[in-house]
Amino acid sequence: MRGGWLHWTVAALAAAFLAAPSLVVLGASFTAGNIVAFPPEGFSLRWYGQVLSSTALRGAFLRSLEVAAVCTAVAIPAGTLAAVALARWRFRRATAIQLYLLLPFTVPLIGSGIGLMLLFGELRLLGAVWPVGLAACVINLPFMIWAVAASVNGLDPELERAAANCGAGPAQTFLLVTLPAVAPGVVAGALLMFILALNEFLVSLLLVDARTVTLPVHVYNSIRAVITPDLAAVSSIFVLAAAAAIWALDRLVGLDIFLKAK
Amino acid sequence: MKPTSAAPSVAPAVEAEGVSRRYGDVAALAEASFRLEAGRFLTVLGPSGSGKSTLLRLIAGFEAPDAGRLRLYGRPVEAIPPHRRSVGMVFQRLALFPHMTAAENVAFPLRMRRWDARDIPARVARFLSLVRLDGLGARRPHELSGGQQQRVAIARALVFEPELLLLDEPLAALDAKLREEMQLEFRRIQRELGVTTINVTHDQREALVMSDRVIVMDQGRILQDADPETLWREPAHAFVAGFLGVGAFLDGVAAEGPALAIAGATLPGRAPAGRAAPAPGARARGSLRADRVRLAGAGATPAGCHAAAPALVEDAIFEGDRILYELRLPTMGGARLRAIDRDPGAHARHAPGAAVTAGWARDDMILFDAD
Ligand SMILES: Nc1ncnc2c1ncn2[C@@H]1O[C@H](COP(=O)(O)OP(=O)(O)O)[C@@H](O)[C@H]1O
Ligand SMILES: [Mg+2]
After folding, report:
1. How far is the CA of B24 from the centre of ligand 1 (A)?
2. Which of A45, A175, B230, B307 is the most buried (most CB within 10 A)?
3. pLDDT of residue B1
4. Contacts of A164 in chain B (CB under 8 A)
5. A167/B87 touch (CB, cutoff 8 Å), yes or no
6. Number of Cβ pairs closer than 8 Å across A and B?
7. Three-state secondary structure call for residue A232
8. How far is CA B18 from each of CA A84, A109, B51, B75, rounded to the nearest angstrom?
9. Using a 6 Å cutoff on CB, does residue B158 contact ligand 1?
10. Residues of CATH 3.40.50.300 domain(s) within chain B?
11. DSSP A178
12. Which parts of the chain span the membrane according to its record (chain A) (predicted)?
């Protein structure tokens, strides 16, 4: 194929550029020395041992998991119903809702974060872990809706008529035909929400206190004190966890579901 | 097994009285009235957009008519939601449930209608066998060929013994050979089960092959309602004559006789069956089927003809079992005509450019009012 090498060179450069930060962190995490350095000084797994034995890190990690779990648990029903409703019924406020779906790109996160901080403060919710999960859900819900909407739009509208023709009432049709048919989108959206909530930093920073730091916030706080290679090890674990989730997503439903959105 | 409800034997399976449905400015269905006796196979034939699917959607209950009355086996159905109507439907794009196997698809109507769970497997197996899918019940729809998916859809529509089967052009997407095979298959199954069926198609051949009765529609109106042979021999409208078979129209002015006057010539014809010929002096069009037009050499008159005109062969198209001639009539203002020769081997073929005589019997030209 003529010109093929050009494509591949550009693609390889782009991939290298995107992967570089992760690779640097991964390399640095294996250092045997006491400071973060790339290329690493020698090779050891001592910082991974350090990470596993640190109660502060483990606590932060468990809290991040809780945040991600709460976020996903709320997003699945809310996002699925919203996506089905948006795709199926034309109603007057549809454009307003579509605008809302663009919010993650338009409103700076710091803005939504401060808004949520004020709101949660007013409701006396600051200081607990689950409201952070709720906040992550509110901010990222459009991604969930997109994932499900991709599945709903790919659905044959005659499918629901066929269900009615077979004798299924509206509730049975939704539960037995519509939902299973959009399940791939729901799984994709749920995994995405989980990863996004696990990584969520800026908004968490505003909502947590010393007892409820999540992992990204904990890492950030540590960096401000002294940068030790255990942070590189934590970051590497993070990257691997996200990669595993993406792999699972691809195996379960295929990544092309995101390309079919719209 | 669930007892089949005893339908009142006198009431027709379907009875439509002035059923209408509009979408915005479009009258998708305009005052459709017809009756269909139980056990019959009716085909609704019409071009795309003529309102065929609309009619089926109203019968299945997915939408409500704006006006008119619809009864199934004597019962008004307006207040009955689709999932409570005893109507099975095969959809144009089949609409099989993608997350269920073929057997689960076929079992679905039985589960929804609360059949005894112990009866379901045997019943599903019987219907998969009826559509010749034995052993394929465990496959998902995407693991089946187009023809096999079609059969699953048929089994799903029939398994619960609906009082009425609706087919919305389910064969349109198949290639010609498979389509003909499935037409006969539908007919076999319909006879075997005796289920009242309304089939919808834009394929005239399918309508003639499969049906006891055919309704021809155009622009939301029912133009003719007849058995296939009557429809073929006695079209009631110029549209029907043009839609069925291969032929041509000659446009002119109606004359006494009845006859059609074109460019000084007067060609004898007849009125449509059961209707008056166009009034003399009015604009009229004569319909001539290609298989009724006979050809002879220039100057000769083909045997058994009441009318003849000089013609130029514009094209001679070899179609295997027949030759289709495209003709022009120079003495009739250049009007076009078509002729079919069904025995191409028997005599010499007329070459393009040849001068011939085209002739036909009086009864072969039907005179319609020009629209
Ligand atoms: N949901 C709809 N909204 C607007 N117009 C429609 C709708 N369904 C059908 N129509 C119009 O009604 C007419 C008949 O449609 P349809 O019954 O689908 O025709 P057919 O099945 O014979 O092709 C067409 O002009 C079509 O555009
Ligand atoms: Mg249609």
Report:
1. 11
2. B307
3. 41
4. 61-62, 81-83
5. no
6. 61
7. helix
8. 37, 61, 14, 16
9. no
10. 14-233
11. I
12. 61-87, 99-120, 132-152, 173-195, 231-249
Contact yes or no for B108 and A181 at CB 8 A: no
At a CB cut-off of 8 Å and minimum separation 6, what does A67 contact? A129, A130, A132, A133, A136, A197, A198, A200, A204, A214
Q: What is the pLDDT of residues B75-103, one digit of tens each?
A: 999 889 999 999 999 998 889 998 899 99
Lowest mean pLDDT among A42-56, A64-78, B216-230: A42-56
Residue B49 Cβ contacting ligand 1 at under 6 Å: yes
Q: Which of residues 156-175 of B touch A (CB under 8 A)?
A: 156-157, 160
Q: Do B95 and A164 touch (CB under 8 A)?
A: no
The phi and psi torsions of B328 (rounded to 5 degrees) equal: -125, 140
Q: Does B82 contact A165 at a Cβ distance shorter than 8 Å?
A: yes
Chain A residues in contact with B88 by the CB 8 A cut-off are: 165
Q: Please, are residues B56 and B200 in contact by the beta-carbon 8 Å criterion?
A: yes
Q: What is the distance in A from the centroid of ligand 1 to the CA of B62?
A: 14
Average pLDDT over residues A13-22: 87
Q: Is B29 in the pocket of ligand 1 (CB under 6 A)?
A: no
Note the ligand closest to the C-alpha atom of B26: 1
Residues 6+ apart with CB under 8 A from B148: B102, B133, B136
Backbone angles phi, psi at B75, to 5 degrees: -95, 130
Query: What's the one-letter identity of residue B157?
Result: A
CA distance A110 to A82: 25
Segment holding B226, helix H or strand E: strand B221-226
Helices first, then strands: H and E counts in chain B = 8, 20
The pair of three-digit structure tokens given for residue A228, joined into one six-digit string: 């030790």
Structure tokens given for A201: 């930093």
Q: Where are the domains of chain A?
A: 1-44, 50-260
Give the list of residues 6+ apart from residue A31 with CB closer than 8 angstroms, or none: A37, A40, A41, A42, A43, A44, A47, A229, A232
Architecture of domain B14-233: 3-Layer(aba) Sandwich (3.40)
User: In sequence order, which residues have a C-beta less than 8 Å from that of residue B43 and are 6 or more positions away?
Assistant: B198, B199, B200, B201, B206, B207, B210, B211, B213, B214, B215
Helices first, then strands: H and E counts in chain A: 13, 0
Which residue's CA is minimally distant from atom 11 of ligand 1?
A: B28
Is residue A68 predicted with pLDDT exceeding 80?
yes
Please tell me whether residue A45 adopts helix, strand or coil conformation.
coil
Is B67's C-beta closer than 6 angstroms to any atom of ligand 1? no
Looking at the complex, report in whole angstroms how far the Cα of residue B82 sits from the nearest Cα belonging to chain A. Answer: 6
Instruction: Identify the nearest ligand to the CA of B172 by its number.
Output: 2
Strand partners, B356: B297, B311
Dihedral angle sign, alpha carbons of residues A41, A46, A48, A53? negative
Classify B246-369 by CATH class.
mainly beta
Interface TM-score (ipTM) > 0.85:
no
How much is the CA Rg of chain B, to the nearest whole Å?
25
